[in-house]
Amino acid sequence: MAKSSSSVLCIPCPKLWQACLASAFRTALACTIVGCVTLFGPQKVQTLITFPAFSYVSLILIIINDATFGDTFRACWLALYATIQAIGPAMLTLWAVHPARLSNATTALAVGVAAFVVVLPFDGSTHLLAKRISLGQIVLVYVIGYANGVHTDPLMHPLRLAASTALGVIASLLALLLPYPRLATFEVKRNYKQLRKNMLKRMQVLIKVICEDDMNCATANALVSNAKSLVTTQTKLFQAIMSRQDSIRWETPLLKIFKLHYCWTPMKRLQQIDTNLRGMELALKTTNSFPINLMSLNEDLKHDLTTLEEHVTLTTKHGPSLTVPESTTKKATTIFLQSFHTIPATHQDLPTYFFFFCAKLLQNNTSFTTSSSCVRDKAQISPNSKRKWANWPRIMGNTNLVPAIKFSLSLGLAVFMGLTYSKENGFWAGLPVAVSYVSGREPTFRAANVKAQGTVLGTVYGVLGCFVFERFLPIRFVSLLPWFIFASFLQRSRMYGPAGGISAVIGAVLILGRKNFGPPSEFAIARIIETFIGLSCSILVDLIFMPKRASTLAKVGLSQSLAIIGDSIGSLSLIGVTGKTDLEDNIRKLKMQVNELRKFVVEAEIEPNFWFLSFHNECFNKLLGSLSNLVDLLHFGDHALKFLQQEFHKEDETYEKEDVNMLQDELEHIKELIWSSIQHLEEISRMESIKILEEEVERKKKISSDLESGKSTKCDAWMLSILGKEGIENKIDCFLQRSTSVVESLYDGSENQKELKSQIVMSLSALGFCLKTIMQEVMEIEHSIKELVRWNNPNSEINL
């Protein structure tokens, strides 16, 4: 925890202050609306709203995470769905079995069964907010009904809970409308402008590095580092825009009423631009000397890059507007980077060729109008309910049975133990477990820790507020505002996060927003104890189900990533069929797997070690960096291969040409080197004991002996580190020589083939760069896995 914590008391940037103040104001306004209705409203309303605590909980669940009007408008329908899902069956159950007949065990059983039904549907069919509201209602309707016994009305009791939920939802909606609506549409437009400026600045820096004649290595490295520093801000802007896309769809009816037009932000195109910029950065990062000599040979390339900069600026300028004038796209040059007619003689010139290859892709990615992008992206974001219902048999089979059983046991046990400790306050044991439900994995011990700390912090603040302003209820509400601001910082910190921030807010509101419930200190102590009971039960069930540690899942994810990389390498071919290839599917799978691995690594970093060996997060972060680079390199390699396959496949007699076949053989040999190394790294990463690894090393020694005795094997080096840096460079030089033979034999120097020849040269050079860098990244993975093996087996000496 010490390493992952971050100080929440440091002075933040002005934008963070503004965000926290705005969030605190909206939350305070919503809580004030609920407080005024429940504390000072008409008696009939107060009689109907008998669960003000859940009104506060509902509005906090809706509004606390920087909600916009679209989010809150969607929450209205989600709350209605959740209420029907929970209250309807509860009314039938309480009518059939009167609450007076319930016991601790039967109440916990009813809560567990109802929770199982709510959680069971597959992830994505029901929104997380709807499940949390529904689960919270289930806990209250059964536990409080049992606590009140014969005084519980089986019909009005659930309806009063539904009315309390409605009050919290309406308060949230009003808070997002007053004093002016907070629209995700305007936020996305603002973030898009910042993202566009960030991307253009990043591109300008990269072009400056390649174009300046007086550039030296130190200055170039500084500029490339400056460009990489922009990526952090760019990633946050990407996430902010993508997180608002669903909210924008819910705001569309309001925009139409006020005749405000909005076009979906072309995020797919921006992501393609970002990918190409990463490729240009990678090219400059691997360049050994500056200035680039190629620039002095052809000054037209500078003009091409300047044209590219202007073109990208024009095509991204309009962003989420209706259309881009057609004349602006026609001004973009159609003849771009056609000065490359010879394959580079050595591998040292490959980064420069790869830089311009990425620049060419960047120009192609921005050669269509924004209006067409809008239509395409809108179609992607629009709901695909017809497709879902068409696949209902597969959907029905895709349920999360085990997680549903685990959560229902957690909630049922928490309710049972809470009622055993205190019948009147038993629901406080189950409510925190219910409203903090997550659909995916959660770091159990850390989540329980921050929830407990947040609950204690908020409760203590609430007790102090009640003590200071004991006789002044309105002032007690005013005292919540600084706490909301503090909690906004808490939920943005690495130490507490959203779970800790929400717990802190709820802890304070439930004490300061109540009256006539006895001494606040007694209520606070009872609630803290019940909360600890509920969280302890949740941890106990997780331990009983023996979930795999995040560190173990990270190791499994690494093995799976290496397996997909091996499949991707096997899909590389110069003379494959055109159209969609296996390589595309493998790249998509690899990207998803690397993202999943990244989640496990982040979770493992904050996971307590207990009696286990500590997690080597530094080594895994290096592996993540190499795997991410491999995703990009395979992506660019796929682009190069598609064009080459298309050209080599145009005429059937092309397959008979000896040079193309020899180039394919050279590619197969390089593939075999990479694949062999990846295969053995995957085997090592899957091994569970050091004894198995030692046996594997002995087997490899025997293979080496067979090589010395003259016996042939499938590959001459099973680890690229054995081949070495010079060996890799020699392999790439041979590939470039074969590529030169192909270009000279297939394409003459006629004017009508200059453009085609230039594209072939750039594609083959880009493929050579990708192969070389892939081998280097695999070598880095080898070193990292060796370090990981030594870390996990400090007392064993193994020379891989």
Automatic annotation (TrEMBL):
Coiled coil segments of this chain: 580-607
The entry's keywords: Cell membrane, Coiled coil, Membrane, Transmembrane, Transmembrane helix
Membrane spanning stretches: 21-41, 47-64, 76-96, 102-122, 129-147, 159-180, 401-421, 472-490, 495-512, 524-545
Membrane disposition: Multi-pass membrane protein
Subcellular location: Cell membrane
Main location: membrane
Annotated ranges, domain Integral membrane bound transporter: 413-541
Pfam families (alphabetical): FUSC_2
Tree of life domain: Eukaryota
Record-given protein name: Integral membrane bound transporter domain-containing protein
Organism, as annotated: Stylosanthes scabra
